[in-house]
Amino acid sequence: MTAQRRPNFVFVLTDDHAPNAISAYGSVVNSTPGIDAIADAGMRFDRALVENSLCTPSRAAILTGTYSHSSAVTTLSTHLSNDHETFITALQAAGYRTAMFGKWHLGHGEGYDPAGFDHWEVLPDQGEYFDPELITAEGRVRHEGYVTDILTERALSWMADQGDEPYCVLVWHKAPHRPWLPHPRHADLFTDPIPLPPTFDDDYSGRGTPAHHATMRIADYLADVDLKEQPPEELGYEERAVWKYQRYMQDYLRCVAAVDESVQALTGFLADNDQTDDTVTIYASDQGFYLGEHGWFDKRFMYEESLRMPLLLSYPARVAAGQASEALVSNVDIAQTILDFAGVAAPSGMQGANLVPMLTGADPAPVRDAHYYRFYEHDDHMHHVWAHYGIRTDRYKLIYFYADGMGLPNAGNVTYPPEWELFDLEKDPYELNSVHLDPSYAAIRHELTVRLWDLQLELGDTPHPRQPAPEGRTR
Ligand SMILES: [Ca+2]
Q1: Which helix (H) or strand (E) holds 274?
Q2: Using CB atoms within 10 A as the burial measure, which of 162, 201, 286, 300 is most buried?
């Protein structure tokens, strides 16, 4: 397998698409043949983790290859300044044709419009599912139809104009983001009962205050705009919870069905134009999502369902088909990986790992022993998740809820006492029982606390002032 030319990049990113709703990841509720085909033709990353489980910061991490503290894009209202180098600006400088279609959510206007793109058409903030307006360099244009279809058609039209020059196109869908409005052609899908996840009735008894404090429980906090109809009045509390879950999942999965059709259309174009072998095709989402696990919807927490993102990549010229990896990889790795495939040097400030040696089999060694996570948007008025940071290793997860908004935009400033959680993922894969106070984990707890401290400093972040330095370390 030898590359004949510089590859194209077709990068589909969706919004809040959990691996559990992709059949390549073992979904028991839906089928995604278009997305699965990317895994069949290349690599499926089973432990791709985000460094901040929120739309805007994750997008910044993907583009810049840096953590939130470096990009300064920490919350939904901190935007990506054009001063930052991204894999797009680097590709464009190296002669690539570049385009962006879809959800940007990184700011608009002078200094914040998408930079490094020859062509861009982006949704204002979250955008609309139907008849969406797209912002372009020339102004705003409203398109009639369904957003997932429109973005696909706009991208295909641009791809068809590129001829033989290498290009990079980002198709960053709005779907399947809340409030989950599907196309009417999918209205009849998923009418059979959808199985409940095993932790649907979680009462958070094995965890600290933050899980109890969050307002993401499907039973209590899904709004009328999410449900679109009222549950039958005769239902009791638990039956209503199941009814709401069903209603939520139906629309969520119907939105995913249109996304999968988009992926099929894009990969179909590549096949029809003999571009498949020389194209790096990527499918990912900006983070995972709770599909009823722990009784929740939404994301934010460092728990597995929102920490994990789907990440699938094919490049037949250089990456063998049918691979799966359990290596700890991150959304900050995507930028350097793309640039290495393009033969373009990564800007020096990028902080991720280059996954190309792992993908090509040149060096299958793990790229990191621990993944660093930090969520800043403390106790916002809709979800009430506390700010926290932590590390995930192959077996363990240590989380420090420092519980302070630090005056950041869009982050609440009510301060609570800090709390720790520690999970043994081998014994407790669903993270139901924190063992932070269990004496038999004292040595592990110390080792992880030191590793977190060191990793945070290695990456240029600062431990929260409330956290005492671990034994053997000083501030
Ligand atoms: Ca998102």
Answers
A1: none
A2: 286
Ligand 1 center from residue 212 Cα (angstroms):
23
Amino acid at position 462, single letter: T
How many other CB atoms are found less than 10 A from the CB of residue 151? 27
Domain 372-458: top CATH class:
alpha beta
Amino acid, single-letter form, for residue 166: P
What is the mean predicted confidence (pLDDT) over 380-388? 96
Position 163 confidence tier, pLDDT thresholds 50, 70, 90: confident
Helix or strand holding residue 281 (H, E): strand 279-285
Is residue 3's pLDDT more than 60?
Answer: no
DSSP bridge pairs for 119? 99
pLDDT at position 19: 98
Written as one letter, the residue type at 288 is G
Q: How far is the CA of 18 from the centre of ligand 1 (A)?
A: 10
Q: Which CATH number among 3.40.50.720, 3.30.499.10, 3.40.720.10, 3.30.70.100 corresponds to the domain 8-182+246-365?
A: 3.40.720.10
pTM tops 0.90, yes or no: yes
Structure tokens at 48: 């791709």
Which amino acid, one-letter code, is at 205? S
Q: How many CA atoms lie within 13 A of 398 on its CB side?
A: 21
> Above 80 in pLDDT, residue 4?
no
Average of pLDDT values for 139-166?
97
Q: For the chain, what is the mean pLDDT?
A: 97
Strands 139-142 and 133-136: antiparallel
Contact criterion met (CB below 8 Å) for 448 and 422: yes
Going by pLDDT thresholds of 50, 70 and 90, the confidence category of residue 410 is confident
Q: How far is the CA of 73 from the centre of ligand 1 (A)?
A: 14
Does the bond joining 197 to the residue before it have cis omega, within 30 degrees of 0?
no
**Distance from Cα 273 to the centre of ligand 1, integer Å:** 32
Q: How far is the CA of 55 from the centre of ligand 1 (A)?
A: 4
The structural domains of the chain, with segments of one domain joined by +, span 8-182+246-365, 372-458
Phi (first) and psi of residue 350, to 5 degrees? -65, 145
> Using N-to-C axis directions, what is the helix angle for 55-64 and 334-342, rounded to 10°?
30
